[in-house]
């Protein structure tokens, strides 16, 4: 039996939102308020995100892609600049550099974790053509896991690079480093800016939404300009006194200026009302995902070495977005597509995160095909199993049983 979408009844997708009655009430209250677009709920969400991450500034926006683009704009990246991006990520991480005319050099990753290492960053910098200038690295916390952020940050600083963390998967992740103890992703211990996504499959959702956190007031100001048409109403920023000021020297109440074009990347009060309600539950959602991950680890032990979880940094408490496993398809005797079809027939949704971005036609035509064996090794084996806060341990049992049956079917 299937539902209207053609999926088996009781289908377990690889990810989905958890929306509760208080979330619905928060959105209804926003709909009944005086503001639907940018109002007090946006300010409230930004304050809550600062409290959660420990950052001094948070700038909410329309989605995670907008957050990455805003970060590139805030850094004034442009033609002639080169940005290092690990190739195992979603398209938006690399595309943000191209939106501003900057070039991308793709870095390899650890084949067992999908995360960029400091050595991968160093190698990528060595592939920038003569005359190109490396300006930034957009590091990625894949699935909620962090890698060698300390080593990447130190190397970036030696090369004069700004660090932007793409933490679309990692809200709620903490990691311990020898120098500073526990750090929260978004706090800025090893990044100048951190971007987040609040898409429905993420740990918390705004429906669609994003944000950038930073401890740099200047960057925060540039982010806000990029978010809203490049427009300012701050008299301290005005350049045209003849238009800006009344006869008594006070600013005209209607006046605004645009020194450079920005975009309409604003978040709405409706989105931020939902986001604030969800943020209150972040710890519960993170703990639930970790409990499910622990259950997966136990139940998949019998499938080693054919199936194993990705490698993880031991000194972290991850706000997990995904549960990816690595499968030895070469030894299995059938391919990943066949396994995904078998699992779907048993009501289990899976996904691949991600096709290395350097393999996309646009980037192959622009930069050729760099040899990134770690990324290919990861991509050829990875598969994301269902993980979301609404799951029960019985669902994990169902997934792992279906996986074992599908692997043994020959």
Can you tell me about this structure?
There is one protein chain. This protein has 410 residues and is of the alpha/beta class. The protein has two domains: 21-279, Type I PLP-dependent aspartate aminotransferase-like (Major domain) (Aspartate Aminotransferase, domain 2), CATH 3.40.640; 282-408, Aspartate Aminotransferase, domain 1 (Alpha-Beta Complex). Helices cover 37% and strands 16% of the residues. Helix 5 runs parallel beside helix 6.
List the helices and strands and how they pair.
Elements: H1 21-31, H2 40-53, E1 57-61, H3 64-74, E2 81-86, H4 91-99, E3 103-107, H5 118-126, E4 133-140, H6 149-158, E5 162-166, E6 174-177, E7 181-184, E8 193-197, E9 210-214, H7 217-227, E10 231-232, H8 241-244, E11 257-258, H9 269-279, H10 282-300, E12 307-309, E13 316-317, E14 323-327, H11 329-332, H12 336-345, H13 361-367, H14 373-379, E15 382-385, H15 393-408
Parallel strand pairs: 2-3, 2-4, 4-5, 5-8
Antiparallel strand pairs: 1-9, 6-7, 6-13, 8-9, 10-11, 12-14, 14-15
Helix pairs in contact: 1-9, 2-9, 3-4, 3-7, 5-6, 10-15
């Amino acid at each position: 039996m299937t539902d209207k979408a053609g999926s088996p009844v009781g289908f377990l997708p690889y990810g989905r939102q958890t929306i509760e009655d208080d979330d619905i009430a928060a959105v209804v209250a926003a709909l009944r308020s005086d503001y639907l677009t940018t109002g007090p709920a946006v300010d409230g969400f930004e304050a809550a995100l600062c409290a959660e991450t420990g950052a001094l500034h948070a700038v909410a926006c329309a989605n995670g892609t907008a957050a990455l683009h805003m970060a590139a704009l805030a850094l004034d990246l442009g033609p002639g600049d080169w940005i290092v991006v690990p190739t195992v990520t979603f398209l938006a991480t690399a595309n943000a550099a191209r939106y501003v005319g900057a070039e991308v050099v793709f870095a390899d990753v650890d084949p067992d974790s999908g995360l960029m290492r400091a050595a991968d960053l160093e190698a990528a910098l060595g592939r920038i053509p003569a005359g190109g200038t490396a300006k930034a690295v957009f590091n990625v916390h894949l699935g909620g896991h962090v890698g060698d952020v300390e080593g990447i940050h130190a190397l970036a600083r030696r090369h004069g690079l700004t660090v932007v963390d793409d933490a679309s998967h990692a809200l709620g992740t903490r990691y311990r480093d020898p120098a500073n103890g526990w750090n929260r992703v978004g706090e800025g211990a090893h990044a100048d800016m951190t971007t987040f996504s609040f898409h429905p499959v993420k740990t918390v959702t705004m429906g669609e939404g994003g944000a950038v956190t930073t401890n740099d007031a200047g960057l925060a100001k540039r982010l806000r300009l990029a978010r809203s048409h490049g427009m300012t109403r701050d008299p301290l920023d005005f350049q045209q006194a003849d238009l800006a000021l009344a006869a008594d020297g006070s600013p005209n109440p209607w006046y605004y200026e645009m020194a450079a074009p920005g975009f309409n990347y604003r978040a709405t009060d409706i989105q931020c009302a939902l986001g604030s309600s969800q943020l209150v539950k972040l710890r519960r959602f993170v703990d639930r995902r970790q409990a499910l991950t622990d259950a997966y680890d136990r139940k998949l032990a019998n499938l080693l070495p054919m199936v194993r979880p990705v490698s993880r940094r031991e000194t972290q408490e991850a706000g997990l977005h995904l549960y990816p496993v690595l499968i030895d398809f070469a030894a299995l005797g059938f391919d990943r597509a066949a396994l995904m079809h078998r699992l779907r027939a048993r009501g289990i949704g899976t996904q691949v995160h991600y096709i290395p971005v350097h393999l996309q036609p646009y980037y192959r035509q622009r930069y050729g095909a760099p040899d990134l064996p770690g990324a290919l090794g990861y991509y050829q084996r990875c598969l994301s199993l269902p993980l979301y806060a609404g799951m029960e341990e019985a669902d994990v049992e169902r997934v792992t049983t279906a996986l074992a049956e599908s692997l043994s079917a020959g």
